[in-house]
Amino acid sequence: MKNQTQSKSFLDRNESLAGRIKTSLLHQKSKIALFTFTAFLSPLYDRDAQAETTLVSAKNVTIMGALDIGGAAFFLPNTNFGAGSYEPRKDGSYIKNKNSSYGELYGKPMLSGRWDTQWGFNVFGMISAIGSTTLGDGDAQSISQTSGTPRAVTLEDANLGVEIPLHLLKGNQKLIIEGGRQRFQIDDGFMIGKGAYSSGSRGAWWYAPRFAFSGPGVVKFEADSVRADVFMLENNSDNDQDQGYDRPKTKFEGFDVTWFRNKPGGHGASLYEDRAAYVTLTYLHVRDSDSSSHYNYNYRGSRDGMNVASLSWGGTPIPIKSLGISKNFTFYGDFVAEENSHARNGYQSTEAYGMYFEPGYIFSKLPWKPYVFYRYTRFGGAKNSHGSVKRNYDPLFLYDGRRYTYGGYWPGEIVGMYLSPLSDVEIHQFNITAVPPVHILRKDDELTIGAHFYDLRLLYPGGMGLPQNTKRHISDEIDFSAEYKYDETLSGAVAGGVAFSGPTAKAFARSGIPEGYSTPSIGQHAGIIEAYFYKHF
């Protein structure tokens, strides 16, 4: 990226606001996102979407197979508040879609094995691949990444590991050493959870079914109330397949330590969802990263040499039975600090942070047991785009599907998905969900309905290349969802919503229009209708 000069217009600074918004989104989507259905289905990925049909069983060796499939459909009336979404063509021109519609499909065959040896330890391994495609107009970003019916088949998991039982201090522990391509997440994935993305030729940009990091690998220690990881990994970046939209190739190492309290019958040492409460300390160091000018100047040009520390917590950390807190009150949060004294691309250093705080309450004595929470999310930013210290937060490997919360850390299904950056922004989010006592197809199925509100605001308009006097408000959005779970292997959902543009959303929408194309009237409203399904065989 070229350094900016004061004489440039705000739309030309940093590669233009359009390019910056686009690049920020491209590099940050984990669905990179959610109501997202994947957030709803994440426990299935972690618990049930493993190879589980026995193919071979001989003595102490077991080989199993399985298949996941998923699909989604989208319709976005008045896309980007009337600015539309543009499909790039091979000749360099664009096709404009005022009302975007597209679909996504993916399939994931899996094969796993386990050998329970006679020497007291177990050997395990897994290999999987993902095939994915996008149909129709492609995603509804200002410049669509996935138009033209892209499709790809890529390697996902390819790992081998050893599990060693331990009995220290009269307790039961486990040491696990796993090498190769593998899924790795810390807590709910706010900092580390997603090692591969699905843009460009890979297709399935929104569903984003790829997660695996490449090795060397991870060493895990699991005990009754403490667990820890030591990791050395790298993300699976491929800008040939992702058509220049992927995140920087990043090699990193570090550790995390978690104290947790189990839910009744749970195993929180290995399953995040089984922790009634937890506190986690994490540190990582980026030992090598692509810092070329290909990547966005403000947001991601300075990973190489970065040090990152995080303190996260969740569940009911401080139970007070007299107030019902031990049963009904939840409190989740994470604070991440990024520092780099050897920054690149014109910066002398990096000092950035990101965080969220989320109190919630379950009204367990009311019909339908409504669950209400408020979440404040803040991704740090710079007061202007000319400083020598990089203050724009880098979301690193953000994934937010480990807990069921519509929207995750993405600020809504309309503006947050397709228009707003995840840097220099604060998000006020209010959610209410309820489970009505109705069963549609079987006595154990479950329907969850919800309403979800988002208020998005820039921290510093000047940090995004906008004039300093620009108002901070981006947009408001309200979404409604209905999610159906037939059983642990089959789920589906529908959702719809409307967004109301603020002055910043209108500026973002205008800046996303390709050069040489006329600027249409930017309106007050944009909408979305979505549907999803997931099946595990």
TrEMBL record:
It comes from the Bacteria. This is Alginate export domain-containing protein.
